[in-house]
Amino acid sequence: MSTNTGITIYHNPKCGTSRNVLQGLRDGGVEPTIIEYLKNPPDRATLEGLIKAMGVPVREVVRSKEALYKELGLDADGVTDAQLIDAMLEHPILINRPIVVAPKGTLLVRPSERLAEIFPLSTGTGRIGPTSAVI
Questions:
Q1: Is the pLDDT score of 114 beyond 80?
Q2: Residue 117 parent element (H or E)
Q3: 18-77 pLDDT per residue, tens
Q4: How many CA atoms lie within 13 A of 52 on its CB side?
Q5: Is 119 in contact with 18 (CB distance < 8 Å)?
Q6: DSSP code at position 2
Q7: Which residues 6+ apart lie within 8 Å of 35 measured at CB?
Q8: Which one from 5, 8, 15, 23 is the annotated catalytic residue?
Q9: Are 25 and 7 in contact (CB under 8 A)?
Q10: Pairwise CA distance, residues 49 & 42, whole Å
Q11: pTM of the model
Q12: How far is CA 116 from CA 8, 30, 104, in A?
């Protein structure tokens, strides 16, 4: 298994999708750099860089299903990108996951099948999911 792959996963081990994506990478023969972002949250420059590299709106990276999202009023009209980023930095649980950085691009890999957009899957099925081993 290759360990110097240039692939990084921003991972939450409690998240089934994140575990499936990590296993998909491992099944593909790589051991990525794993950043457990709840223990080691990104700084502002890193988070902004990830969002820019993904080419998605900031709101797409925020976990709107978290109770904290509504508690902080982040669902209100007029909340700015800067306010959303501030909230994610203060409360990393609000960062959607997993984010994978690979030579072919940076992607919020939800659902887990999107991994194939930036990483060749070796399962033969072209997808990962519930049949993948869980860590």
A1: yes
A2: none
A3: 999 999 999 999 999 999 999 999 999 999 999 999 999 999 999 999 999 999 999 999
A4: 6
A5: no
A6: B
A7: 8, 9, 10, 11, 42
A8: 15
A9: yes
A10: 10
A11: 0.85
A12: 15, 14, 10
Split at pLDDT 50, 70, 90, the class of 122 is: low
**Cα–Cα dist 110/132, whole Å:** 15
Q: Distance of CA 79 to CAs 14, 69, 76, 93, 94, Å?
A: 29, 12, 6, 18, 15
Annotated catalytic residue 37: no
Q: What is the pLDDT of residue 5?
A: 74
SS3 content of the chain, % helix, strand, coil (to 5): 40, 15, 45
Long-range pairs for 44-49: beta carbons < 8 A, 24 or more residues apart: 44/85, 44/89, 47/85, 47/88, 47/89, 47/95, 48/85
Query: 41: which DSSP letter?
Result: -
The CB density around residue 91, as the number of other CB atoms within 10 Å, is 18
Residue 103: enclosing H or E segment and its boundaries? none
